[in-house]
Amino acid sequence: MKDRRSFTLLEVIIASGILIVSLVTLLYTYVVVAKTEQSLEYRNQAVFIANSKMEEIRGCSFHNIYDDYNNVDFEPNYPLGFSGHIDVEDVSSGLLKVTVAVSWNKGNISGGPVNLVTYIANK
Questions:
Q1: How far apart are CA 69 and CA 116, in angstroms?
Q2: Which residue among 45, 68, 104, 107 is least packed, with the fewest CB closer than 10 Å?
């Protein structure tokens, strides 16, 4: 009977193949998770920008909102790579529907729009 104290070439090749497939799968998963994390960070920034713009609009006089903000494109000073659009719709007498949409294009990741909608009534 032979005394087997080493691996055969076939066993080494099979083990190497399993290891390579496992490492490639882990690397791919890491890349997907990193890209998803970055996309979520951009989405959070877009929500913050849209909310800031919405608060700016809420602070204005009701009678100036439609004239000052309807169909307006904007780009925030920071962070770069984001752009937005505002639509104001006169729903009825004394009620406006305001939509703020923010999109981004940063490197190889683009997304959006993130839409915030609110109704503003004349007090």
A1: 14
A2: 107
| Alpha carbon of residue 39 to chain centroid | 5
* H or E element that contains 17: helix 9-58
Q: Report pLDDT digits (tens) over 90-108.
A: 998 889 999 999 999 887 7
Q: Are 112 and 101 in contact (CB under 8 A)?
A: yes
Which residues are registered as beta bridge partners of 114?
Answer: 102
Residue 39 sits in a domain of what CATH number?
2.20.25.110
Q: Which residue range forms the structural domain that includes residue 26?
A: 9-121
Arithmetic mean of pLDDT, 102-118: 86
Indicate whether this model's pTM tops 0.70.
Answer: yes
- The DSSP bridge partners found for residue 116 are 100
Contact 62, 77 (CB under 8 A): no
